[in-house]
């Protein structure tokens, strides 16, 4: 024991005294730490600015913080460090670079981006926060110098939100290891086409491609043997789209092709496609979807409930839907105009058929109007569904009225309340963001009549609904539902959407007791 104690004392004597009260008080103690320990300490700091401050405390910190494998830069004060850090000699490869800026300039980004390309062997995320509107500039304005995008040979994921700064694609070179690419709020300039960059062989391993809110891409041709997911949102001015991706399983196209330009052309070859969202113009004479025999999930363009017959929008949606006979999951969006609809016509009769569906998701943007007739029309066309998810979307403009005026035409089509409808396969219903409006309760009352074998109903109230309103709706629905139906009422715990509870009817004083009905009574918190 004495020998052991002596050894411990010898070892302690050999260690540097790092305590503030030790003999070395006031000296540089951080420099005495092993380099790998210093790196671990610096990795726990939020940004490079904080890591750089260790230079004041440690002589070795001045070179150690430049050797971190992960770098995070926040806002303008860090810009002076980006180039300095990336230029560090004898520096290891970087597995992650995160840059968050505000109102950045192209020349600032162009100064450090090539350095990042040389050192990165992982993920690059750059987000430039600003208030530039998507349509707040001239499309052909190329007076601002573009950011040259270098080839990131070893990067695995790139996510650039440029805040509509111009970007120029590289005319040569390969992104050899890149698997994910996201380009958002970008103005493309230069002669090199984006499709050439993201296709084989320049991106031989690309699996996920996302282009959102972009200008300057009139033609996009993607040929890839590796691509699995492709998401195009508001690629403004797109006139030609060609996709040849034999492994593609998810494709989203939203608001890219428009009628305000020469006739767009789209050719999609994706024989293994599982999910297709096509919220865009469609005409079989210029849109060719190829063989989609594996398709399981489909999302067409918004169906307009009230509008002008001459627009032909719903008839175009119908032509798209006629391309498909059987779909496992179908997502339908019903859109109502904001404000007064008195001068519009009811357009649901344009939709005459839907594919055979098992799981229907119905998103209703009713802007305060009654939606029973339009929803009934959809359900009448797919009576074989086994599961229904009804999502009541809030108003697009929070300042608009949430209820329609007295005598509004939205309630004139009342035949749906007396017509027969048999949903004999429907077993499960989920309703999200119920506000308790009279038109909602009226629809649920009819739904209980149509779904004679309903086993489970789950209702999530909108976060703005008061507890007293929730109690009232629970009582009304419990009186009209079947005893064999298991009903879950859920409400958000706070004013936000962070968490919610199952509502215990017994504890909330609704007069419902566990022995009477198959209600979910336990309270359970979970992420919304």
TrEMBL record:
<protein>
    <recommendedName>
        <fullName>F-box/LRR-repeat protein 15/At3g58940/PEG3-like LRR domain-containing protein</fullName>
    </recommendedName>
</protein>
<feature type="domain" description="F-box/LRR-repeat protein 15/At3g58940/PEG3-like LRR">
    <location>
        <begin position="143"/>
        <end position="280"/>
    </location>
</feature>
<dbReference type="Pfam" id="PF24758">
    <property type="entry name" value="LRR_At5g56370"/>
</dbReference>
<dbReference type="InterPro" id="IPR055411">
    <property type="entry name" value="LRR_FXL15/At3g58940/PEG3-like"/>
</dbReference>
<dbReference type="InterPro" id="IPR036047">
    <property type="entry name" value="F-box-like_dom_sf"/>
</dbReference>
<dbReference type="InterPro" id="IPR055312">
    <property type="entry name" value="FBL15-like"/>
</dbReference>
<feature type="region of interest" description="Disordered">
    <location>
        <begin position="1"/>
        <end position="26"/>
    </location>
</feature>
